[in-house]
Design a protein that fits this description.
It contains 4 helices and 7 strands, in the order H-E-E-E-H-H-E-E-E-E-H. With 204 residues, it is an alpha+beta fold. The longest helix has 22 residues. The N terminus is likely disordered.
Length: 204
């Protein structure tokens, strides 16, 4: 009898233990980090024809970026291109750095790259003329900075205007590039500053 009672007690104990284990809530899975958000087509400055947004791609663009090539790391980077039916195009690049300190350093390097871009372009293309300007800070998150590069090639008779900005939110850095034929007088500088603020605020 003692053996039977012991056996039954063991079964009961095991059954209770099994029910208890079943009743315990499963440990929550670690939440995946939320990827920073990109601008939508409608958040760029208005153009004569509507903007179209391309897909988000991982890593750096294959064709590179004129002013920031060699500065942005491929790891942790994604980009998205935008276009209109006319000669206007744009790109947003987002990089998530390992730490906020590294993101701050990257943003500083990008500012230097934008500030010195025209000088480097002139070295690569003798005869190129242009004016580079810094258009100040946009007060959003850890801050953003706006630049313009107005270039012309007298031999060809073409003029191009590019608006650029770099901004940071914690470990995340974003770069905006906008360009079209023409000069700074015809560029939507005020709208681009607004787009820059929206881009940084939208990251997280």
């Amino acid at each position: 009898m003692r053996t039977t009672r012991t056996f039954r007690t063991a079964l009961l104990t095991a059954a209770v233990a099994g029910l208890a284990a079943t009743a315990l809530p499963a440990a929550p899975a670690a939440a995946a980090p939320v990827a920073p958000k990109f601008l939508s087509a409608g958040q760029w400055p208005a153009s004569l024809t509507p903007w179209t947004a391309g897909p988000v791609h991982k890593s750096l663009p294959e064709d590179g970026s004129v002013c920031t090539a060699g500065t942005i790391p491929a790891k942790g980077t994604r980009h998205r291109d935008f276009r209109t039916e006319l000669d206007t195009g744009a790109r947003q690049t987002i990089t998530v750095a390992p730490t906020a300190a590294k993101a701050k350093a990257l943003a500083a390097e990008l500012r230097t790259a934008l500030a010195t871009c025209l000088d480097r372009l002139k070295e690569q293309e003798p005869g190129l003329e242009g004016v580079s300007r810094y258009h100040g800070r946009v007060n959003v998150e850890e801050g953003a900075h706006v630049y313009s590069i107005d270039t012309s090639c007298p031999e060809v008779g073409s003029t191009d205007i590019g608006l650029h900005s770099v901004g940071r939110d914690g470990r995340t850095v974003t770069v905006l590039e906008w360009g079209q034929l023409g000069d700074l007088d015809g560029a939507p500088l005020k709208g681009f500053r607004k787009t820059t603020g929206t881009a940084v605020a939208k990251l997280h």
